[in-house]
Amino acid sequence: MSEVSVHQFKAAVTLPFPDIERAKAALRGELRLQAAYTEAGPQAPDWTTMVVTELDDDTDNHGRTWWRWSATVSSMPPPAAGGSAPTTEPPLRP
Fold first, then answer.
1. Are 67 and 54 in contact (CB under 8 A)?
2. Would you identify the CATH topology of the domain 10-75?
3. 81-85, long-range: CB < 8 A, 24+ apart
4. In angstroms, rounded to a whole number, what is the distance separating the alpha carbons of residues 90 and 52?
5. Which residues make Cβ contacts (< 8 Å) with residue 77, sequence separation at least 6?
6. CA 34 centroid distance within chain
7. Other CB atoms closer than 10 Å to residue 69's CB: what's the count?
8. What would the pLDDT profile of 61-76 be if each residue is shown by its tens digit?
9. What is the pTM of this model?
10. Is pLDDT above 70 for 79?
11. What is the pLDDT of residue 15?
């Protein structure tokens, strides 16, 4: 029996405004790219496992405040022989 290979991906984003929805969108984009280019071949992120953490905000030398977030997501197990991977893209906001 072969071992199921599930990967975990991590990303971080810094924005000049405290907008969690934009942060999530940026994080999903980065995580999607990481999953697409793994040594084991493309992986499908399981968005139900995505965990977003708000990190601290920071003020730079010019007095501007920057907000930071990080996220992790696991890949879905590969499909059974002959099957196709389900898509679990997060819904788009209207």
1. yes
2. Dodecin subunit-like (3.30.1660)
3. 85/44
4. 14
5. 4, 5, 6
6. 8
7. 21
8. 999 999 999 999 999 8
9. 0.76
10. no
11. 95
